[in-house]
Structure formats: C-alpha cells, structure tokens
Protein: Rubrerythrin
Organism: Anaerospora hongkongensis
Amino acid sequence: MAIVSNPFVANLPKQLSNEELLQALRIDIIGEYEAVIGYEAHAQAAADPRVKQILLKLADDERKHVGQLQQLLILLSPREGQLLDQGKQVVAQQEQNPLQAVNPFVN
C-alpha cells in the first residue's frame, strides 16, 4: 500500500485510541513485510553481488522493525503477547510430537 502519494498521511485529526493504534501498528507490520518481500525479490534479480548483499541486509533490517513493532503491540496489549506466545507453543509442541496432530484452534 503506497502512501507516498498522500501528502497528508501524517496529519491525523486526533490522537488515536489504543485500539486504533493497535490496528495502525498491525498495518505497519504488514508494510515492513511487504518491504522484505520487495528487497528479497530485487536481491534475487540483482546480478551485482554487492547490490544483492545490501538488499538482503535491508530486508533483515525490516525484519528487526517487525520485532520492534510487535513489542509495541505487546506493550499496548498484553493479551496480544499472550496469543503470540500461545501460537509459538503450538508450533513447539508440534515439533516435539510430529506424529500427534495438534489442533491450533483448541485452547
């Protein structure tokens, strides 16, 4: 989602509520992942290894931004952090017991 063409994107008419800010952070995370995809696609297409290396470094920087934004989500919504942890636990259980089906939709 390109927002460069909108010169008023930063002119918010009010402070965001906590829920609005959480949504904005989720959108920011999507933007960071879109940048990762773009940088990696450009790196794959680059013939010059120097350019490829820099693009891959930029993609890694975007991943760090994702982590920072996730931490902000958790700061504003501890429940968000609990749910992320639960998702990690489901995967860890599946890794430990690959033959046992773990239903991720059951608490």
Summary: Residues 18-96 form one domain. DSSP finds three helices and no strands in the chain.
